[in-house]
Specification:
This protein is mainly alpha-helical. The protein has a single domain, classed as Orthogonal Bundle (Helix Hairpins), CATH 1.10.287. It is 74% helix and 0% strand. The chain is built from 6 helices and no strands. The protein is elongated. The chain starts with a helix and ends with a helix. The structure holds phosphoribosyl ATP. The site of phosphoribosyl ATP has 13 residues, from α1, α2, α3 and α4. Phosphoribosyl ATP binds next to α1, α2, α3 and α4.
């Protein structure tokens, strides 16, 4: 899958400076990050609605639209796909290590309540050295 997204990302970069009248991607870049974010959110909602409705084929189509709009947003935000793959690999490794760790009491959320389990796990692994 990452190969497809890598190719799409390169295509999005290539379309960035095309004529917005004929290129949706160029138009999105011209409209800026707020529009990119709006389109991505809209696509995510369309995937959700179709999934809840059990429309499998629509979920497939809308998921492709979602991934397209995600790569456009990445490009607009200066995020490269390999940075996302690296983060996913990091988490995969941590989860792999986690399976071998002794079970620990559920990590209490910090007062702000926004502690992500993956970050708490990373702290545990770091403390174990
Ligand atoms: N992969 C895609 C791709 N996936 C989805 N889309 C478009 O994104 C839209 C997502 O659905 P929406 O319901 O949001 O679109 P819509 O119904 O037309 O409504 P609006 O977005 O116009 O409001 C669809 O119109 C699709 O045509 C894409 N548009 C372009 N690409 C690729 O991006 C590259 C650049 O293409 P251009 O943007 O055409 O230069 C090429 O490699 C293309 O294949």
């Amino acid at each position: 899958m990452s190969d497809s997204l890598d190719r799409l990302y390169q295509a999005v970069l290539a379309a960035r400076d095309l004529d917005p009248a004929t290129s949706r991607t160029a138009r999105l870049f011209r409209q800026g990050p707020d529009k990119m974010a709006k389109k991505l959110a809209e696509e995510a909602i369309e995937v959700v609605i179709d999934a809840v409705a059990g429309k499998r084929d629509a979920v497939i189509r809308e998921s492709a639209d979602l991934l397209y709009n995600l790569t456009v947003l990445w490009a607009g935000a200066g995020v490269r796909p390999e940075q996302v793959w690296a983060e996913m690999t990091r988490r995969e490794r941590m989860m792999g290590i986690a399976e071998k760790l002794p079970k620990s009491p559920k990590v209490a959320k910090s007062r702000s309540g926004n502690r992500r389990p993956i970050d708490a796990l990373e702290d545990r692994i770091r403390k174990l050295g």
